[in-house]
Structures are given as C-alpha cells and as structure tokens.
Amino acid sequence: MQFEAYISLAVYFLAMLGIGLFAYRQSTSDISGYILGGRQVSPQVTALSAGASDMSGWMLMGLPGAMFVTGFDAMYIAIGLLTGALANYLLVAPKLRVYTEVADDSLTVPEFFAKRFGNKNASVRMVSAAIIVLFFTLYTSAGLVAGGKLFESAFGVEYMWGLLITLGVVVSYTLLGGFLAVSMTDFVQGCIMFVALVMVPIVAYMEFDSMSAMTGAAYESVPSLSESWQEMSLLALVSSLAWGLGYFGQPHIIVRFMAIRSVNAVKTARNIGMSWMTVTIIGSLGTGFVGIAYSNAFGLDVADPETIFILFSQILFHPLISGFLMAAILAAIMSTISSQLLVSASSLTEDIYRVFSNKDVSEKATVTIGRIGVAGVAIVALLLAMDQSNTILSLVSNAWAGFGAAFGPLVLFSLYKKNLTHKAALSGIVTGAVTVLFWIYAPVLDGGKALSSVVYEIIPGFVVSITTLWVVSKFDAEPSDKVENMFNEASNELAKQQA
User: Helical H runs in 299-318?
Assistant: First the structure.
C-alpha cells in the first residue's frame, strides 16, 4: 500500500485518540460518567453509536464474505437483523431508559436485573455479569481477528502485529474516555462506514457495462434470487431470520438506550439508526454480490472471501481513498471492540468487584478499577484471537446467540411482566446460555457434528429461556409490593414522559 494510504490511517488513529483525550477531560470523574456518559447522550450519537457497535467488522468483512460464498442466502440474515433492530427500538428502548433510572439509577444491565427485584446484590446480577464477561471476551476476539486479517491482507503486516495495533489503539481511547469516548468515536466511525459502504459497491459496479452483465457474471457461481428461495430449506431460512432475536439481549447495544438523554429522543434515534442500518446493510450485501461478479468477469483471485471489501479498496481507488476505506474497516472493528470492552469492564467493576468488596471505594478508584477491567478483558481476547483459523462470522454468531438467548427474553419479561420473579430470571438466564453452549459444542450428531449445523442456536436458546421464565414465574411466590410498585412507577413515568 502506498504512502498516501498510510497518511489517511494515521489521521484516523490520531482523531480517535484525540476524542478519547477530550472525553477523558469531560466525563470520567465519576463512575456514572465513565459507564453511561451521565445519561446525557444525544439521539444522533446514540443512533450511530448503537449501529456502529452493533455491526462491527462483520459488516465490512463477515457479511460481504457470506454473500460472496452463499449468494442470496445471506440476505435473510440482513432481513432478520433489520426487523430485530426496529423491534428493539420500539419495545425495549423507551421502557429501559425509564426503568433503569427508576430502579435506583442502575448503571449496568446486570445491576438493573438485580434492582428490578428490589435487591441490588441479587444472585442474578453476578450470574449475568459472568455471562457478559464470558461472551464478550469471545465477541471481542472476533473483532481482533478482523483487525489482524485487515493488516495482514492490506498492509502485509504479520497477523499478530495486526492484532496488537488494533487492540492498542482501541484500548487507549477506551481507557481514557470511557462511555463518552466510545460513543463519540462510534459516531465518527458510523459516518465513515456509511460513506464506505455506499462508495465501494457503486464503484465496483461501474466496472461493468450494464446491470445484466454484472448479474450474469455473478450467476456463474451462485443461484439467482428465485432459485435461492426455492433451494433454501425452511430450517435454514428460520435460522437466518432468527438473528433478529439477538437484539433484545445485546448489552453493548441496549446500554445505549440507558444513556440517551430522554425518552422523547428515542424516536429521533430510531429514525436515524434504522436509516443508517438499512443503507449500510444493502451496501454490505452489494459489495459481496458485485465481488462475485467481478471475480468471475475479471479473474480476481479471492483467497479469503471475508477480504473482498479490502481487495476492492486496493484495486479500484486512489491510495488516499484506499486508506480512508481501510479506516472504515478499522472503524467498524474498533467501534464494537470498545463497546464490548467497556461493558465487560463495567460488569467487572460494578457487578462483581463492588458486590464482593466490603470496602467503601471512592468514585475515582472505581473508575481506575474499570480501566483495569478493560485491560484484563482485552488481554484474554487477544489470546483467543491468536487462532487465525477462526472466521469472523462464526465467532460473532456464537456470541450473538449467547447474549440473545440468555438476556433477550429476560429483558422483555423484566419490562413487560409485572409478576416476574427473581428465581425465574436466574433460571431463564442460565437455561438460555446453557442451551446455546450445548447446541454449539455438544457433538451429538453423526460424525461428531453439533446441533448448530442444523438450526441456529439462538432459536432453541430463546425458546427454552422464555419457557423457563414463564413457568417458574407462574409457580413461584408473587414478588413483593416494593417490586410491583417500582414496576408501576416506571410505567407511569414512561407515560408521563411520552405525553
């Protein structure tokens, strides 16, 4: 890659570190500012921060790669995600913003789960915090794999050095500025991703004489949309669409709803966020589809399908623009890693250290402990990411299913079912997570295959968790008047703010 491209990347790195330094001076004096930005985040930043932290490196690498390999089958994942994201804005965002504040100003998702039942140190808090650290470490490793592949493919840098560079920059600004730095960098990164995913497929398409020439070249390798629909099994279709169920339980996404400045700002965030997501997903799928056609028509050798965006960036653009497009991939990767590191550190600090520690820790010391947590999770994720054979999409799909099944049903029940009990919540989390892990790793089918090869693990996990929540709540003792009063207070406060 030429010198101009490195200039673009250097400017990007400096900008991210500058934002981290600015946020350090603005919002890290207390733990609320470090974890939630003081609940004063604008709807614009909330929308793009949620989108950028959600989509990560799989938007520019994993999803185009899936489209390149499977053709239109990958489109159904996108449809499921769009539907799930919209449902998350409608069903979860307003209620969660109000309820977490009514529940004694809960700063983390596990803390909300506990205070929802009138006990800040309830066992559901510890269990959910442990699941967050477990699955986010896996999730963070997926982002590092994407960063390692980027530097290896685009810059000829060894995979290990790519991991270290990616981790070094993102840990620096996350350690410095906390939630505000993560949200502000996500906003910038979301803008970069938007431009890149509009630009790349359009420029690649312009290499063909017509749409028919492009589609004809693509159909040499993959079936048409109608043929894909006919050949796709019902289980495969349901598994792809079921990705949308994961949104309700993703801590790094729903924490944005807790931090937005007001309930009335949620609608603006929803409109911006869904528009951004629709355009970028279409661009991601378009990159993969045009990549199929381009490789067939012009003999482009694509050794790793997940690098098709990188290849287009290198062969179709001026080096200065190419550097900008590489920054877009880094933006996608870093936005998610930073969010996951911060949520993990928040759980380690607020939900594990504070619960077990008998010491009266100052706000400043708590922020320091949170920074140590960021570094600790980052190191473990780095060790996992050293296995270069991992694919980005597979790592993301496993972690996405784990959170979706463990937390998604509980989030919905917590917000909408008054008589939900603590015992039911704890049982729902455990059964959802265990079901997903069993589905992924238990070699119960012929040839030692796991059940995830038949149907996406989020489906059984979600069903088992919902069933457990409902049945245990039905037969458990009714929650206390204090818990019911808190539920009613949150409902009344939401109605008042929406009026």
Answer: 308-316
Helix, strand, coil in percent for the chain, rounding step 5:
85, 0, 15
- Rounded to whole angstroms, the Cα distance separating 127 from 145 reads 28
What b/e readout covers 435-465, taking b as 16+ CB neighbours within 10 angstroms? bbbbbbeeeeeeeeeebbeebbbbbbbbebb
Q: How many CA atoms lie within 13 A of 257 on its CB side?
A: 29
Q: Is the pTM of this model over 0.90?
A: no
Helices 159-205 and 319-346: angle between axes, nearest 10 degrees: 120
Q: What tens digit of pLDDT does each residue of 150-191 get? A: 788 777 788 888 888 888 877 777 766 666 667 777 788 788
Rounded CA gap, 350 and 343, in Å?
10
Answer positive or negative: Cα dihedral of 413, 415, 417, 418.
positive
Could you please report the per-residue DSSP string of 391-414? -HHHHHHHHHHHHHHHHHHHHHHH
Q: In 299-389, which ranges are continuous DSSP H helix?
A: 308-316, 319-346, 354-356, 363-385
What is the four-CA torsion angle of 440, 444, 445, 446, rounded to 10 degrees? 130
CATH 1.20.1730.10 fits 3-393, yes or no: yes
pLDDT tens digit sequence for 71-80: 888 899 899 9
CA pair distance 268, 250, nearest whole angstrom: 21
Length, in residues, of the chain: 499
The full set of domain ranges for the chain reads: 3-393
